[in-house]
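A.,

Following up on our hallway conversation. Structure tokens first:
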């Protein structure tokens, strides 16, 4: 795995680097906690991000949120101190695993495995939600477009649906996209 390491403490960073290399992973980047994590992820394209801090700052959590939203990948955060609110904000920012009481080389591999599994499950749920939202929007727009066709052409519901379906097939577009185009055209007129 390609790994980016983030830590303000040079000694901890060296230990984390050594542990990752010993586990057979490729460390592609090492950053301080105040470094530009988003730019590093863009440039280095890691498979996972490991962060070891005393307590994650607001800026760090914002960077993690941006990464999770725009460049999703597993993120493991090791912290020395924490409170319920910080953990909640970290999880909301997309942290796959939040480990309190710092980093231990012995538990590094299982924590990474859990973080990857949790990340993959979250991504699956995210894709299912997006797909469901799109299907609902398509259904709503198809119903509205059918209504417009029925009113303007004086046809029944089945004929309106068939007309939409034919337009979609002729233009090699999804039915929802054709419906949205028809609605937009009707709004212009």
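Then the amino acids I'd put at each of the 189 positions:
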């Amino acid at each position: 795995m390609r790994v980016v390491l983030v830590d303000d403490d040079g000694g901890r960073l060296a230990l984390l680097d050594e542990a990752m290399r010993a586990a057979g992973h490729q460390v592609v980047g090492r950053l301080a906690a105040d470094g530009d994590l988003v730019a590093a992820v863009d440039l280095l394209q890691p498979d996972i991000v490991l962060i070891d801090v005393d307590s994650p700052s607001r800026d760090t959590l914002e960077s993690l949120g941006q990464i999770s939203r725009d460049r999703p990948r597993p993120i493991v955060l090791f912290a020395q101190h924490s409170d319920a609110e910080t953990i909640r904000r970290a999880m909301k920012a997309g942290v796959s695993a939040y480990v309190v009481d710092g980093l231990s080389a012995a538990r590094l591999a299982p924590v990474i495995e859990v973080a990857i599994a949790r990340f993959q499950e979250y991504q699956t749920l995210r894709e299912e939600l997006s797909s469901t939202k799109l299907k609902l929007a398509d259904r709503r727009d198809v119903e509205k477009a059918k209504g417009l066709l029925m009113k303007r052409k004086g046809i029944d519901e089945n004929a309106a649906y068939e007309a939409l379906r034919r337009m979609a097939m002729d233009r090699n577009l999804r039915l929802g996209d054709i419906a949205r185009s028809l609605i937009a055209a009707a709004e212009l007129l």
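The radius of gyration is 24 Å. Curious whether your intuition agrees with the design.

B.
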